Predict the 3D structure of the following.
Amino acid sequence: MSGRKRAFDEVQALNAAMYTFWKKGFVGTSLADLTANMGINKPSMYASFGNKEDLFLKATQHYVTTKVDRVLSTLDQQGISLRRRLKAYMVATITVQTEGEQGLGCFLSFCESEVIGENIPEAAKQEVERLSQLPHQKLKQLFETDPESIVLGLDKRSSISAQTILTFLKGCASMARSGTSSDKLVESIDIILDGLGLGSRVSN
Amino acid sequence: MSGRKRAFDEVQALNAAMYTFWKKGFVGTSLADLTANMGINKPSMYASFGNKEDLFLKATQHYVTTKVDRVLSTLDQQGISLRRRLKAYMVATITVQTEGEQGLGCFLSFCESEVIGENIPEAAKQEVERLSQLPHQKLKQLFETDPESIVLGLDKRSSISAQTILTFLKGCASMARSGTSSDKLVESIDIILDGLGLGSRVSN
DNA sequence: ACTGTTTTGTACCGATGAGTACAATCTAAT
DNA sequence: ATTAGATTGTACTCATCGGTACAAAACAGT
């Protein structure tokens, strides 16, 4: 005997919550912000998602599945040179960071910067830190196992190579958040790949 | 007829306020945080610094004069190759970002990331945005006027070159804030400078 | 139509946010 | 010693924070 029908779409509401946290962070987002953007009121939110921290964790997961995973999958493309795959990955990252009217950067990177401020609950902190490591692991492994990478000798510098790319991309996130356009950020990609010793930017 | 003596050092208190904002941001810092770290109580704070926003503006200025200006001055060193000057600048930046027990990254970069969240007063927002542009202008001008840069043809790519360096350094700020050590970040510098076409990393 | 169940809206809770009133305290000049 | 001026500590203000109680509203099955 089910009761009154839910008057909102849960996925849509979660999506709105994700963008709210993405824009304002965990600390800067109030329940009033959330309910306004989600189009629901507090009791509905608490009934569906738990509390602010639970909602944040679900929004974080939603970000990973709808954004991060898609971007990371560009590294698995077949029949494309390593350099092109890396470039596609970096372009895809920047595209996410600059999407919408106002670029928001990286959800995880921004929220991770709040962690040290001690205003974030423990579980959320650990989850953000855990998820932030995934790209590094994937990139490092790519440099270690990819045949082309081994030929170039990059497998011996896998960690620093991965880290340099991610440092650059985190910088892009900051830049995007302060208004730098996608085009300008993309321009730097070839410079980074050149520096890593990934061959010429014209041929590969 | 001056009254009771001030029982705290104003500069010292401002310094404590700077580190508090640096760690927790404008939004995440409460007056309780501030007064606790500054070692004074609220009326003293309001009498000396105005209000939270005024204190933030003064802390920001304090950051610029004690940190940013020092770092930028490394670019003005004489008798050193362009590559070495840029490297010194980047190392100095990373040193500031990773100082202390826990690296805090870049005060300006972090606070700028809060701006878009709409929880920052207008004046503070504009000041943070204004100050964030200074390094780009300085670097761009360096690439345009430095003789060595002109020989290398970098004057024709001054803007993108400056932006690439700053994007990388903003990434270092994020990395530092999430615990990456100074050593690891410094390792990437030569890769970036190589990519920019600043000659060999061994000779210059 | 009635009943049990779920969602919704309103109105609240205690805690904490920024900011201030005011009296007690201290210091320097007279 | 007294007085005037400035700083200090305590105790407030009002608004907003995250979270909830509760009754009205809307449904499904009988």
Notes: Chain A touches chain B through 49 residues (CB under 8 Å). Residues 122-145 of chain A form the longest helix (24 residues). Chain A has a mean pLDDT of 96. The CA atoms of residues 103 and 151 of chain A lie 38 Å apart.
